[in-house]
Amino acid sequence: MNWRPTMVPLAGLCLVLGTAAAPTGAAAAPAGNPRAVHVNAHAAATGAGATLANPPGTPPGACPAGTGYGPPLPASSMTAAKIRSGFSFLEGPVWVADGGYLLMSDMAAGSGPYNVQPSTIRRFTPPATFDTFLADAGSNGLALSADGQQIIAATHDQRSVSAYRLSDLTRSTVAANYQGRAFNSPNDVAVRSDGVVYFTDPNFQRGNRPDQMSGRTSVFRVSGGQVTLVDDRLRQPNGIALSPDGTALYVGAYSENKIYKYAVQPDGSTGARSVFVNYIGGPDGVTIDCAGNVYWASGGDSLVHVYSPAGTQLGTIRSGTSGTTNVAFGGSDRQTLYVTSGPRNDSGLYSVRLNVPGYPY
Question: What is the C-alpha R_g of the chain?
Answer without folding.
Answer: 19
